[in-house]
């Protein structure tokens, strides 16, 4: 990867304005499918190239602060499954019969070229009402168009016609705090928009067109209280929506199959946290404990089917969890970090196609520590 950035600051037209270019190139050799170690690969691989250009802008105009960001670029990926051999973990290879069209992963040998065009933008306006109140308005946009062509498998029509998805979020928030900043609060509302044009193929390789147009409104509030210099208590609630990412609804061209009928995830999120800071003569200790609860509809999860799979929705998922993080800094030149989390995700759906379901745990607890 190579990246370069150039900009100006402290000008009449901008407090900070920069332009950035990034180019990256990568090759990924796969040893086996993600969920099947018994099927080794010898030659299956992908390559990708990315070229991005972006600009960011910041300007304070009296009581209004303006922030803007725009990014545009493309990503070109080659998925190469053209080997005529089968491999084992000893490194041996066996050549397939001339009549056998299979690759190492696909049912037919394939060299699929996938091209993405991306445009992202964000604009934030903050108006300072007085010394303790401000209003923020934000607008963000994310657009992706994907095309594809198979250089080997003439029957593969994936992304032969352009597929596209677009996300738009418009937000408004109000924030206030007391003069000592021991009490802070904010309330916000978000308008979500999601659109898409997705073309998939049925069992007879005919095109199936799906047009998506969705609008949802979310909202929430955040409150913090600092009863002592070293302690801060935080409480938050949000009615949130999470729209599918491109790899979830369009697939990744390798293991993930498209699902144009994937719905956005809707959830009620509640968080309670306490933060403790202790300063010593030459060091500082920071600790934070969080409890969270999440009630989700149309929860998005990956469902593996053999080496492949697709993302799907679960109707009713409950998530509870706890997180802990600690950080110790000595003389600002050495730092230790420790964090751990426990999550319990369960499918609470009572019936599936008229049949009762027992409680399903979706994931195992995870813990992480670093130094």
Question: How would you briefly describe this protein structure?
Answer:
By secondary structure, the protein is an all-beta fold. It is 1% helix and 68% strand. The strands form three sheets. The chain has a 16-stranded mixed sheet that branches. It has a two-stranded antiparallel ribbon with strand order 5-6. The chain has a two-stranded antiparallel ribbon with strand order 18-19.
Structure, explained:
There is one protein chain. This protein has 371 residues and is an all-beta fold. Helix content is 1%, strand content 68%. The protein has 1 helix and 20 strands. It has a 16-stranded mixed sheet that branches. A two-stranded antiparallel sheet has the order 5-6. A two-stranded antiparallel ribbon has the order 18-19. Strand 11 and strand 12 form a beta hairpin. The chain is globular, with a radius of gyration of 25 Å. The two termini are 27 Å apart.
Could you list some keywords that capture this structure?
mainly beta, 68% strand
Rg: 25 Å
Unreliably modeled segments? 364-371
Please count the beta strands (DSSP E, at least 2 residues each). Answer: 20
**Overall body shape:** globular
Largest sheet: 16 strands, mixed
Residue share in β-strands: over 45%
Q: Roughly what percent helix?
A: under 10%
Distance between the termini: 27 Å
Derived structural class: mainly beta
Chain-averaged pLDDT: 92
N-to-C SSE string, H for helix and E for strand = EEEEEEEEEEEEHEEEEEEEE
- The number of distinct helices, counting runs of at least 4 residues, comes to 1
- In terms of quaternary structure, the protein is single chain
